[in-house]
Design goal:
single chain; 501 residues; alpha/beta; eight-stranded mixed β-sheet; five-stranded parallel β-sheet; 19% strand; disordered N terminus
Length: 501
């Protein structure tokens, strides 16, 4: 191990020990994140640290008369079903755990809708990527923070309470590393804290333009990192780890990160940290992998690296039966992003055989053409219905309600991919939840086991009314606590960036 790797490993170990001993609220470390030109972190909507739900979705299913309590650090301390309603405690009709968004490139939120114009030739993921590169070269760190805050406030308003940020714009526009290697990553964390969402920051290893260690193109220089760069970024981020913030790593893909470099990074990363990777997203990638190694991407990954439950394989769209089986048996999470995969023309994940073998999945909004968990889940199921020409695909032997199955399964897979104590209403987990709008006609008077099916498959209104994240009410009556200030900064950022178009 190099001296840099040893130093990074030591910093990680020290931070792990400090984190385990700490009990301060999540906001305590916010001052460590650069805040130049940023309004102070909002005073989130005030409330007592308890909520009474007539119907709440617990790990075992829907339960009646549930009293939820949490502490000052934002952890659930007690979840009791069939409880009496204490005087003065807020009452809600339907409460569900907040969803985990397991795949985000936050800066791409500012690109939404601007790539929907046909070129002279046939458009694909690869032509979209060229447009994205041209956009990415102009984004400044403070603009990344403004974009992230806007995106995360939107995600919260739609019921996401955690996000995994697959962050690869690390360098300045000229390709130079910032004085602090983690400058841009810290800015995204600052945006998450301003919005109040939990975040798993995943600095990206991105060294090559293609298989066979092809050199990066000029437009990719902002993304350039080798193993030592990534370990330095992780080391600088360690001080930000707390109950609302985790740090893992993301080898971009097997075409952009070599196996020896991935192994070097993993050797210095604690084994409980999440590892995410893009894999088998497009047919072109599969062909390139076969040409380079004689193996398909997932086969290549499993042959060369020890893939287990801390891994999230993002997209994994184009698989053969053996690869479906390998992912399911390894315990890795398939990170599915149906709206982005549809927008880019990637293809459809083989969900039904994957689930039949016990596979785990979660959902992400990726390029953020949508910030709605409902839309991701709806199109995950609808894509399978179109493919199979059948209905009600995503179910299990014990759960026949599609909405309930999708929400619970995505919670479990997303929590695993995030590496944080989220995804369930139970003591010891983060106090992350959404209160649904029972006054809306779509949900009015429903039995509990009808709620999620209606939420996911009926209409386009946002039925999330209030959102609690890390024990803080960040959304009330569908409005984010800092919505006006965050939106103003985002609009200013859009005006600045569009000068370069």
């Amino acid at each position: 191990m190099s001296d840099i790797s040893k130093a990074t490993a030591a910093a990680i170990a020290d931070a792990d020990a400090a984190s385990a001993a700490a009990s301060a609220p999540a906001s305590a470390a916010a001052g460590a994140v650069p805040q130049a030109g940023v309004p102070p972190a909002p005073s989130f909507f005030a409330a007592a640290r308890a909520l009474y739900a007539k119907n709440a979705l617990l790990p075992s299913g829907w339960a009646r008369d549930v009293l939820l309590q949490w502490d000052a650090n934002g952890d659930l301390t007690d979840v009791k079903a069939h409880a009496l309603h204490p005087a003065g405690v807020e009452l809600a009709e339907y409460v569900v755990p907040g969803m985990i968004n397991l795949h985000s490139h936050s800066f791409q939120r500012a690109l939404g809708g601007l790539t929907e114009k046909a070129g002279a030739g046939e458009d694909s993921f690869w032509t979209w990527r060229d447009l994205m590169y041209r956009f990415a070269r102009n984004v400044k760190p403070e603009q990344m923070e403004a974009i992230a805050a806007q995106l995360f406030s939107e995600c919260l308003r739609h019921g996401y309470t955690s996000v995994c940020e697959f962050h690869y714009v690390h360098r300045a526009p000229d390709g130079a590393m910032y004085p602090r290697a983690a400058e841009t990553a810290e800015r995204v964390v600052a945006g998450a804290r301003l919005a109040g969402i939990g975040v798993t920051m995943l600095p990206v290893l991105y060294r090559y333009a293609g298989f066979g260690e092809a050199p990066l193109k000029p437009e990719q220089q902002r993304f350039k990192t080798d193993a030592q760069d990534v370990l330095k970024i992780i080391g600088e981020l360690e001080a930000l780890r707390d109950a609302q913030t985790e740090v893992g790593v993301a080898p971009h893909s097997l075409r952009a990160a070599s196996v020896p470099q991935i192994k070097e990074v993993l050797a210095s990363l604690p084994h409980n940290r999440p590892v995410h990777i893009h894999i088998a997203e497009q047919q072109g990638e599969v062909r390139q992998s076969l040409d380079h190694s004689g193996r398909r991407p997932v086969q290549y990954l499993y042959d060369e690296l020890e893939v287990d439950g801390r891994w999230c394989l993002v997209h994994a769209t184009h698989l053969v039966d053996e690869e479906v089986r390998a992912i399911a048996q390894s315990g890795a999470v398939a990170g599915l992003c149906p709206t982005t995969e549809a927008n880019l023309g990637d293809g459809l994940f083989p969900l039904e055989p994957f689930l039949a073998q016990g596979g785990r999945f979660g959902i992400g909004s990726d390029s953020h053409i949508s910030q709605s968990a409902v839309e991701e889940l709806r199109w995950l199921e609808y894509g399978q219905r179109l493919l199979q020409q059948r209905r009600n695909i995503a179910v299990s032997a014990t759960q026949r309600n599609v909405g309930d199955f999708l929400w619970q399964a995505a919670l479990q897979g997303g929590a695993q991919a995030a590496g944080r104590a989220v995804g369930a209403l139970e003591a010891g987990k983060r106090a992350d939840l959404a209160v649904l709008d029972d006054g809306h006609p779509n949900l009015y008077g429903l039995a509990a086991d009808e709620v999620l099916g209606t939420l996911v498959f009926s209409g386009n209104d946002n039925l999330v009314k209030h959102v609690l994240a890390g024990g803080q009410w960040v959304v009330r009556e569908q409005k984010h606590a800092a919505q006006q200030a965050i939106a103003a900064r985002f609009k200013q950022t859009l005006a600045e960036l569009r000068e370069f178009r």
